[in-house]
Amino acid sequence: MRIADSNWRDIQAYLAQDDRCVLPFGSTEQHAGLSLCVDAILAERVAIEAAEPLGVPVFPVMPFGLAPYFAAFPGSVSLRVETLLAVARDVIASVAASGFRRILIVNGHGGNAPVGALAQQIMAEDPRLSLRFHNWWNAPATWAAAQAEDPSASHGNWFENFPWTRLAHAPAPEGAKPSVDLALMKASPPVRVREMLGDGSFGGAWQKPDAAMDRIWQAGVAETRAALQGPWP
Questions:
Q1: Residue 181 three-state SS
Q2: At a CB cut-off of 8 Å and minimum separation 6, what does 179 contact?
Q3: How far is it, in rounded angstroms, from Cα 48 to Cα 36?
Q4: Which pTM was predicted?
Q5: Which cofactors does this gene product need (predicted)?
Q6: What is the pLDDT along the chain (233 residues), one digit of tens a residue?
Q7: Is residue 105 a contact partner of residue 123, using CB atoms and an 8 Å limit?
Q8: Coil, strand or helix: which one is 200?
Q9: Residue 200 CB neighbours (<10 A)
Q10: Angle between helices 210-229 and 38-51 (to 10 degrees)
Q11: Cα separation of 178 and 180, whole Å?
């Protein structure tokens, strides 16, 4: 269930019989012709679909993450590492104060990896808590489904092109884009990154059939639900 559809009494009643919740983390950054909010949209949606049959509450997605490399693309937002970690710590502390003890962090953006390390630190500080950091898109079964479709799965290409991340006024181009030199890109400042990426995609096909995307999506939902089901310590 979405926290947005609950009031505080609903959550109090829920906590009397379960202590799990989901915290989605995303990012707002360029994704070629797709929505700037791809990572936030996908993290929240996969969390909601995974948690719904279990009746576990899903908090609103954290829409900002670490994306300094895309700073030269208008509309991209990046926090400092210390800012993201401070926000994540405060959010976790707040839900723990409410009574949640088993917390699944569903992450939709690779740059947010430091939150996973923070989760380990928080558990060392508070043994009452059990935290899981779940990169939904590259968990084993989901990533295998993507690789079976096309090994070029990457940022801003077909792999993130779902019906709910597309923009009606920006249809995907036909064909595929040559892959960029990711090692060189990662060693470059934002202005140079924009020059290298052009439209923003890392390369590969811009779009795949919806049936193929649904197979990958269902794998992601199932794997996220499995992480939520446990086992938990």
A1: coil
A2: 152, 154, 202, 203, 204
A3: 20
A4: 0.96
A5: Zn(2+)
A6: 899 999 999 999 999 999 999 999 999 999 999 999 999 999 999 999 999 999 999 999 999 999 999 999 999 999 999 999 999 999 999 999 999 999 999 999 999 999 999 999 999 999 999 999 999 999 999 999 999 999 999 999 999 999 999 999 999 999 999 999 999 999 999 999 999 999 999 999 999 999 999 999 999 999 999 999 999 99
A7: no
A8: coil
A9: 19
A10: 60
A11: 6
Return the closest-CA partner of residue 228 out of 133, 96, 94: 133
Give the type of residue at 96.
Answer: A
Q: How many helices (H) and strands (E) does the chain have?
A: 8, 5
Write the CATH number of the domain with boundaries 3-229. Answer: 3.40.50.10310
Query: Which residues contact residue 74 at a Cβ distance below 8 angstroms, ignoring those fewer than 6 apart?
Result: none
Alpha helices in the chain (DSSP H): 8-15, 38-51, 81-98, 114-125, 140-149, 182-186, 190-197, 210-229
